[in-house]
Design brief:
With 428 residues, this protein is of the alpha+beta class. 45% of the residues lie in helices and 11% in strands. Among the domains are: 191 residues, no CATH class; 107 residues. It starts with a helix and ends with a helix. The N terminus is likely disordered.
Length: 428
């Protein structure tokens, strides 16, 4: 081998000077990369209305959970980590079952981009999102529901068998949810008010707490029905406004039936988003809020439970998403959030790898939601603002209490994680 090396040296005289020149030529490019990475780190999350030079379009793509990275706090299973595997760049899905826009295709020139400044849904697109439950409308209903008497209780239509559909004396209807334990009703109430802190409460139907007292003014008309309900006297239940004509929702790409069946979860680029019809884009705007919300509350009883079921039911993603419905105008309704915050935080070890991976699949956000998260991160005020809003707007808050100190710390930590994730998306 020594003679071979000598022959190479003799065959290529002057190779060392040439190599030196090549290295010198690469230094400016390397320096530029280092400067850009440093600038991205310093910028972290820029919400000002300008885009950094060279910013690439936002993407929806799967990332790896802390469990998959071998970090503490994971409880994921190998089957789920296999589910999250992403094909290499340019690799087609097995069998060609699903394709988006071709890599070299260009959207029509007159098609407005649904993404602004790399990671935010455009204002024009957000204006098309159905308004949901307006704040004034919600306040009026809550006031009327607290003052109304319960005229009748009916079985069915409101989830598990212990719940009831109530007809109120003012003519409206409400789902009455009776928790298996108080932390479920507490989670329902706190999740509703956290949505208010985040500015997305219009996606949740108005919800109030009520104290069940058979001889009390509100419940006295249904004293006989209460005897057959097996509810405990003095229990706190939630009253959620009944909404007519809701329909089920199947998860869209990249979490839909084809992605689940093929075990590949395709990312969507800004180019691919541009070729989707407006109705799908409007729904994706709402889904980005939903996944962020479910991560903060650690709610496992929605899309996460469907993904968990993929282990034994490969068709589950083609079925209705749990606790998510669609109003006639196309607006999504985030229903039954009692697994959030309290119950969800207690079961983090089991469900967090799923919630974290779902969050990492989103890199396009509503700018208003991102701003709220940035403020909660900067002020470290997530629990304080939730407590302030909860106490001001729910007269029965003290009956259930608030988050424990540990739960409050977890909420802030999850806000910080979302903030870092948004910054990471911005830096790409």
């Amino acid at each position: 081998s020594g003679r071979r090396m000598k022959r190479v040296k003799r065959a290529a005289p002057g190779s060392l000077p040439v190599l030196g020149l090549l290295l010198l030529g690469a230094l400016p490019a390397l320096w530029t990369v280092l400067l850009r990475r440093d600038a991205a780190t310093q910028r972290e999350l820029d919400l000002e209305p300008r885009a950094p030079a060279g910013l690439s379009p936002g993407r929806w793509g799967w990332g790896r959970s802390s469990a998959a990275r071998g970090e503490p706090g994971g409880g994921g299973q190998k089957t789920f980590r296999a589910l999250l595997a992403l094909p290499a760049a340019g690799q087609e899905e097995q069998g060609g079952e699903r394709r988006f826009a071709a890599a070299g295709s260009q959207p029509p020139a007159d098609t407005a981009s649904p993404v602004e400044r790399g990671i935010f849904w455009s204002r024009e697109l957000e204006e098309q999102v159905p308004p949901g439950f307006a704040e004034e409308e919600a306040v009026a209903w809550l006031s009327a529901a607290r003052a109304a008497r319960v005229a009748s209780l009916e079985r069915g239509g409101c989830g598990r068998s212990s719940n009831r559909l109530a007809r109120l004396s003012d003519g409206s209807r409400a789902c009455v949810r009776y928790g298996i334990n108080p932390e479920q009703i507490q989670g329902e109430a706190l999740s509703y008010h956290l949505a208010g802190v985040l500015g997305i409460q219009e996606r949740l139907p108005p919800m109030a707490l009520s104290l069940v007292e058979a001889r009390g003014r509100q419940w006295e008309p249904v004293r006989e029905e209460l005897r057959g309900s097996h509810w405990a006297e003095g229990a706190v239940v939630s009253l959620t406004r009944w909404v007519d004509n809701l329909t089920t929702v199947v998860a869209p790409a990249p979490w839909g039936a084809e992605a689940g069946a093929s075990r590949w979860l395709q990312p969507l680029s800004a180019r691919e988003l541009r070729v989707l019809p407006p109705s799908q884009l409007v729904e994706l705007v709402q889904w980005s809020d939903l996944i962020l919300f479910d991560y903060l509350t650690a709610n496992f009883d929605r899309l996460v439970s469907n993904f968990f079921s993929l282990q034994w039911d490969p068709r589950v993603m083609g079925r209705a998403t749990s606790n998510l419905l669609r109003a006639p105008d196309g607006g999504l309704v985030f229903m039954d959030n009692e697994a959030g915050l309290v119950h969800g935080y207690r079961l983090l070890a089991m469900w967090d790898p799923y919630n974290e991976s779902l969050l990492r699949s989103v890199c396009v956000f509503r700018e208003g939601t991102a701003r709220r998260v940035a403020e909660l991160h900067r002020r470290r005020s997530a629990a304080a603002e939730l407590r302030r809003r909860y106490r001001a707007r729910e007269p029965l808050w003290a009956r259930l209490g608030f988050l424990s100190e540990r739960q409050a710390e977890l909420l802030q930590a999850r806000v910080d994680f979302v903030h870092r994730h948004i910054a990471h998306c911005r830096a790409q």
